[in-house]
Amino acid sequence: MASEQEQICITVKAEADLSTKQYRLMQMTNAGYGTTCLHSGTQQVMLGILQNKPAAYGRAAKICILGHTKAVAGAAISSLGFIGAGSDGCVAAVATPGHNIIGENIQTAAGTGEHIEVIIGLGSRFN
């Protein structure tokens, strides 16, 4: 079972209903200061992982930007290592250069949708 420990989080406004996106990657958008949206794409800048379930536009979205948190796996992750963005804001293993990474997984995932433990750093780093 995935767990969480020490974290540094920020709170920003949700750009949309994110109630089904808890523990997925987020990014800042140009729609307005302090808004978030679901992250996808290998070379986008990731802000962090959504900790709560804001159910409408403008609600508070708590984003973990540093620390030990849960994340939703986008596919099986068979070994420990760097993670980045998969589809629909899920995390995915990053093994090849050219992908941004947000941290490291400290648990493996058997398949899509599984909650795993990760350690994330401030923003994304380029691999």
Please report the distance between the alpha carbons of the first and last residues: 29 Å
Largest sheet: 5 strands, mixed, barrel
What order do the strands of the largest sheet run in, or round the barrel if closed?
1-3-2-4-5
**Tally of alpha and pi helices:** 0
Helix-residue proportion = under 10%
Q: What integer is the average pLDDT?
A: 86
The count of β-strands is 9
Percent strand equals over 45%
Structural class computed from helices and strand pairing: mainly beta
Structure description:
By secondary structure, this protein is mainly beta. The chain folds into 2 domains: 7-65; 68-126, no CATH class. Helices cover 0% and strands 46% of the residues. The protein contains no helices and 9 strands. The chain has strands at 7-14, 25-28, 35-38, 48-50, 60-72, 81-85, 91-93, 100-105, 115-126. Strands 1-3-2-4-5 form a 5-stranded mixed beta barrel. A hairpin with a 5-residue loop joins β6 and β7 (91-93). The chain is globular and about 40 Å long. The protein starts with 6 loop residues before the first strand and ends with a strand. The model has no long low-confidence stretch (mean pLDDT 86).
Which tags fit this structure?
127 residues; single chain; five-stranded mixed beta barrel; mainly beta; 0% helix; 2 domains
Question: What is this structure, in a nutshell?
Answer:
The chain has 127 residues and is mainly β. It has strands at residues 7-14, 25-28, 35-38, 48-50, 60-72, 81-85, 91-93, 100-105, 115-126.
